[in-house]
Design goal:
Largest sheet: 6 strands, mixed
Strand order of the largest sheet: 2-3-1-4-5-6
Number of helices: 5
Shape: globular
Distance between the termini: 12 Å
CATH architecture: 3-Layer(aba) Sandwich
Radius of gyration: 14 Å
Strand content: 15-25%
CATH class: Alpha Beta
Helix content: 25-40%
Order of helices and strands: EHEEHEHEHEH
Bound molecules: guanosine-5'-diphosphate, magnesium ion
CATH topology: Rossmann fold
Number of domains: 1
Number of strands: 6
Structural class: alpha/beta
């Protein structure tokens, strides 16, 4: 079985864009399991000449108004709990938010290995973007731009060193 990497984060940080960049496929390798994992989308990342791993896009934590009580949040939690590595995806443009804090708090409860991925850093100073999340105390944060496919090689190297 392939190692499983879960993409977790609040809505709109670019999880699905990252999922598509990693799996290089919008639909082909994505499937839903109706009624069971409605908001979990699985694919496979096959980096050239390197080990493959499975990726799950958790489809978004519930909106701010729902906190973490919603069904999608439970799905995200289930995906994180079964993952070998969680990519905690945040928005480098908006910086750390209260919902990020909340997600990180429950990620810590799952005790899964977690890598902080600061997305949307195209046109930004990567070090400064990462620094905004320094208080999370997650070592080895990676700055990427999913939309522009920047930083993906570094991200892949980091993921493969951990799974
Ligand atoms: P999700 O809700 O976390 O799955 O986020 P999406 O992947 O749907 O992306 C939300 C929005 O952010 C979309 O408009 C994307 O085009 C945009 N986006 C995603 N990744 C990047 C990025 O690396 N840079 C920029 N500038 N925009 C991005
Ligand atoms: Mg999404």
């Amino acid at each position: 079985m392939l190692p499983l990497v879960a993409l977790v984060g609040r809505p709109n940080v670019g999880k699905s864009t990252l999922f598509n960049a990693l799996t290089r496929s919008r639909d082909a390798l994505v499937h839903d399991e109706p009624g069971v994992t409605r908001d979990r989308h699985y694919g496979v990342c096959r980096p050239e000449g390197q080990r493959a791993f499975a990726v799950v896009d958790t489809g978004g934590i519930a909106g701010e108004e729902q906190g973490l009580a919603g069904a999608t949040a439970r799905q995200a939690r289930a995906a994180a709990e079964e993952a070998d590595l969680v990519l905690f995806v945040v928005d480098g443009r908006e910086g750390a938010s209260a919902l990020d804090d909340e997600i990180l708090a429950w990620l810590r409860k799952t005790a899964r290995p977690t890598l902080l991925v600061v997305n949307k850093t195209d046109g930004l100073d990567a070090a400064a973007a990462i620094n905004d999340f320094a208080r999370y105390g997650i070592r080895d944060a990676i700055a990427i731009s999913s939309a522009h496919r920047q930083g993906l090689d570094e991200l892949l190297a980091e993921v493969l060193s951990r799974v």
